Amino acid sequence: MDILLTIKALANETRFNILEWLKHPDENFAPQEHLTETCNFEGGICVGAISEKTGLAQSVVSGYLVKLQKAGLLESRRAGQWTYYRRNEEGIERFIEQLKKEL
Questions:
Q1: pLDDT tens for each residue of 64-79
Q2: Which of 16, 18, 23, 85 has the most CB atoms in a 10 Å sphere around its CB?
Q3: Widest CA span in the chain
Q4: Which long-range contacts (CB under 8 A, 24 or more apart) does 14-20 make?
Q5: Rounded CA gap, 70 and 28, in Å?
Q6: Higher-confidence residue: 4 or 79?
Q7: What contacts 103, CB < 8 A, 6 or more positions away?
Q8: In b/e form, how buried is each residue of 9-34, taking b as 16+ CB within 10 angstroms?
Q9: Position with higher pLDDT, 16 vs 37
Q10: Dist CA 103 CA 100 (whole Å)
């Protein structure tokens, strides 16, 4: 894990908010009707719903989500025409542990 890449990803307020919102997806987003039972991606939220909550264009939000995913903070799954994102709790924990060691 590149700790600086992760810190840079978190330095943007909207990206930070997205990560916070995804901590409690049921409280922050409407039910994800397109996420089927067979997809098995509990807590996943589609890009469109995240975009709507941020008030930003879907293309901007998609870029933000990819950046958070590359930093190891999110994971994604495609289901039909929708892409869903959720927190990568193991990646977040690794980042916190690495941060503790280095600082």
A1: 999 999 999 999 998 8
A2: 85
A3: 43
A4: 14/54, 14/56, 14/64, 15/64, 15/67, 15/68, 17/54, 18/50, 18/54, 18/61, 18/64, 18/65, 18/68, 19/68, 19/73, 19/74, 19/87
A5: 23
A6: 4
A7: none
A8: bbeeeebeebbebbeebeebbeebee
A9: 16
A10: 5
Q: Are 41 and 86 in contact (CB under 8 A)?
A: yes
The CB density around residue 66, as the number of other CB atoms within 10 Å, is: 15
pLDDT of amino acid 39: 74
Tell me the pLDDT band of 82, cut-offs 50, 70 and 90.
confident
Average confidence score pLDDT of the chain:
93
Cα separation, 15 vs 10, in Å, equals 6
